[in-house]
Design goal:
This protein is an all-beta fold and 171 residues long. It is 0% helix and 28% strand. The strands form three sheets. Strands 1, 2, 3, 4 and 5 form a five-stranded antiparallel β-sheet that branches. A two-stranded antiparallel ribbon has the order 6-9. A two-stranded antiparallel sheet has the order 7-8.
């Protein structure tokens, strides 16, 4: 987390905690530089952060506007890995949308008639024009597997002749 000094101050107070915390109840730290590395944060979590200048002993500026950030997801190391895209999933927010062409994003669709376990699925449609959109999984550590496999359910509805292409890429 970094900021720009407002005047001649040389010390700052940083306050941070999980998204939406009440200022005054967060974690506090002092920095003598215009940046502060926050450690010990939980993966895949959103945080709010504020900073204010320490002008003199007992004299501080007002708190800055909130700066919100999220930590990265942990690499998935426990196999087999199963994603059901439901609200109870710990990794559902670790999936990312990448638009290559057009602007049709993937989104969660909660409906008891869809998905492997009848709770949810990820959905996109290319109706309205050619769109290329990828859904990217969390990072998976497959080093302990001798023969990794990918299994998924796929549903292809026909909307006005629109047909999607499914391709699997790995890194």
């Amino acid at each position: 987390f970094l900021w720009t000094a407002g005047a001649t101050e040389t010390a700052w107070q940083v306050q941070y905690d999980t998204l939406g915390f009440v200022p005054g109840t967060g974690n506090f730290a002092i920095s003598s530089d215009t940046n502060y590395a926050i450690s010990g944060l939980t993966a895949n979590t959103s945080y709010d952060c504020y900073v204010r200048a320490i002008c003199a002993v007992g004299d501080t500026s007002s708190w800055s506007i909130v700066h919100t950030f999220s930590t990265q997801c942990e690499t998935v190391t426990s196999m087999p890995f199963y994603e059901n895209f439901s609200d109870s999933s710990n990794t559902v927010s670790c999936w990312k949308n990448v638009d290559q062409s057009g602007s049709q994003e993937w989104f969660l669709y909660n409906d008891p008639t869809f998905g492997t376990d009848g709770t949810a699925m990820v959905f996109t449609s290319s109706s309205g024009g050619p769109h290329i959109s990828k859904i990217v999984s969390p990072t998976l550590d497959l080093t302990t597997l001798t023969l990794p496999q990918l299994l998924f359910d796929y549903r292809q509805p026909v909307y006005f002749g629109d047909q999607n292409i499914t391709a699997v890429y790995y890194r």
